[in-house]
């Protein structure tokens, strides 16, 4: 997909792309952090219609919602390309000893050889979490490794 980026002096940047249905969509990223989503008239590409305005926080939420399935899909693609590599998910139960503790305390990679490549927290995705990222109840850990490694991460998170 081609995305055209246009500098709007004093305003910000505009990103434009064509959808599979033939619509032209624009997203204006303003310097003040706000975003505007527009579509263009098919008969007159210089005319646009405002679809919605988003604050920076709202735009971040939309990006996370749309990005979460794509991240999981990319990990699934990776595991299909590499024999012996699998992707799994481990939910952090409310009674896990690791709730409200840093991810690094699990020593999951050292102990299992599997890597926690993302944390899904509600609608948010924390990609490539650092060892200091604090785990929360109901977090879902996205784990890449061998099936045994993924099972090992599950055992660590759920150990009494």
TrEMBL record:
Chain ranges of the RCK C-terminal domain: 73-159
Matches recorded under InterPro entries: AAE_transporter (IPR050144), KhtT (IPR026278), KhtT-like_N (IPR058776), RCK_C (IPR006037), RCK_C_sf (IPR036721)
Domain of life: Bacteria
MF terms in GO: monoatomic cation transmembrane transporter activity
Coiled coil: none
GO BP, sorted A to Z: potassium ion transport
Database matches in Gene3D superfamilies: Regulator of K+ conductance, C-terminal domain (3.30.70.1450)
Protein name: Cation:proton antiporter regulatory subunit
Native source organism of the sequence: Pseudonocardia bannensis
Native organism taxonomy: Bacteria, Bacillati, Actinomycetota, Actinomycetes, Pseudonocardiales
